[in-house]
Amino acid sequence: MNLPPLSLYLHMPWCVKKCPYCDFNSHALNGDIPEQSYLNAIVEDLKHDLSLAEGRPIQTVFIGGGTPSLMSPEFYHQLFDSLRAYLTLADDAEITLEANPGTVEQSRFTGFRQAGINRLSLGIQSFQPSQLSALGRIHDDKAAHRAIEAARNAGFDNFNLDLMHGLPDQTPADAVADLEAAIAWNPPHISWYQLTLEPNTEFYSRPPNLPDDDRLWDIYCQGADTLRKHGFGDYEVSAWSRPGKASRHNLNYWTFGDYLALGAGAHGKVTLASGEIRRFWKTRQPDAYLNRIASRTAGSQVIEEDELPLEFMMNALRLTEGVPEGLFTERTGLPLDTVAVKLESLRQEQLLERHGLKTTELGQRYLNTLLERFL
């Protein structure tokens, strides 16, 4: 089988403080970040995993967290020099950094741009002071606007604004106001996703007063209308972009591409030349990741043949336009006949379109139920 495109995910695990809704591998900062030690650990991690690349160039890089913008521009200069010593980055590689508006300034953004980062994802979440306080964010609405202005002044013409909806006591008008505040900056991309209560978070143990299902649906409908009116299309369940500005890194995920993973708690997925498809994950705790002498990979597992249809569909069917049927075989190595009966049943129920692997509007609304059919 032809190997899929290859991306790279890098995890920076430190935050100023842990937000009450966050279930990502993030750790409140206590003292200075050990940048040089972490850089050394990432390089050693990469050298151990280098064979997984199978000689493929890196098409996209995503630096997530935690709060990656806490790391200095000099750290990223050294990081990309080190990466290029072992990997080939495509000339047009999309390189995205997540940034918290409470941790950046103009000179920092300029330094990130000079280090080779060409796309930002700004974690705004809301422009309303009361909501930012309820969400435990370290920035206010003024800092959010300043961060967007600083990013644009630093030369970032490709950026994403991250917003949440379904916030405590939120009304449809509140949600639309957040979107309109974001749209006023003319961003190429907006991530707009619903707040959910995840286990092992403060919100899960002490739930805030979230909107009921009817209000959530009203919020979604009015918000979606607002985004479409301003020229945004929902190419994925929670991702909206202007034409040609979809996140290439996200598209590689949703089309079941491969991605290396470096950093504490990072998860990766690779296809080997043998056809075996394997997931792997790294040691979560930063101190443990820093101090490992051998491999920093905490575990890995082969995705078995009977698991591949669900794994593929969980990604591909998130895309509004779906994917060609042939991509199933190209990315899994399985014949389409493996799922032909299930596909026909879903088409009969008007949950999938007749051509391609694409949900109908009804199927998109009940996507989780649809996916259960591939268990």
Task: Give the secondary structure arrangement, pairings included.
Elements: E1 6-12, E2 14-15, E3 27-28, H1 35-49, E4 58-65, H2 73-86, E5 89-99, H3 106-114, E6 119-125, H4 129-134, H5 141-153, E7 159-165, H6 172-183, E8 189-194, H7 202-205, H8 213-229, E9 233-236, E10 239-241, H9 248-254, E11 258-262, E12 267-271, E13 277-282, H10 286-291, E14 297-302, H11 308-316, H12 326-332, H13 340-348, H14 361-365, H15 367-371
Parallel strand pairs: 1-4, 1-11, 2-3, 4-5, 5-6, 6-7, 7-8
Antiparallel strand pairs: 8-10, 9-10, 12-13, 13-14
Helix pairs in contact: 1-2, 2-3, 6-8
Overview of the structural elements:
By secondary structure, the chain is α/β, with parallel strands linked by helices. It folds into two domains: 6-253, Aldolase class I (TIM Barrel); 308-374. Helices cover 37% and strands 21% of the residues. It is built from 15 helices and 14 strands. A nine-stranded mixed β-sheet has the order 9-10-8-7-6-5-4-1-11, with helices on both faces. It has a three-stranded antiparallel β-sheet with strand order 12-13-14, with no helix packed on it. Strands 2-3 form a two-stranded parallel sheet. Strand 7, helix 6 and strand 8 form a beta-alpha-beta unit. The mean pLDDT is 95.
Helix amount: 25-40%
What's the tally of helices? Answer: 15
Give a short account of the largest sheet. 9 strands, mixed
- Indicate how many domains the architecture comprises: 2
How many angstroms does the end-to-end distance come to?
24 Å
N-to-C SSE string, H for helix and E for strand: EEEHEHEHEHHEHEHHEEHEEEHEHHHHH
Determine Rg (CA atoms, Å): 21 Å
The portion of residues forming beta strands comes to: 15-25%
Mean pLDDT: 95
Inertia-based shape: globular
The CATH superfamily of the largest domain is identified as Aldolase class I
Content-based structural category: alpha/beta
Pick out the low-confidence regions: none
> What is the quaternary state of this protein?
single chain
CATH topology of the largest domain: the name is: TIM Barrel
Do you know the CATH architecture of the largest domain?
Alpha-Beta Barrel
Strand order of the largest sheet: 9-10-8-7-6-5-4-1-11
What is the β-strand count? 14
CATH class of the largest domain: Alpha Beta
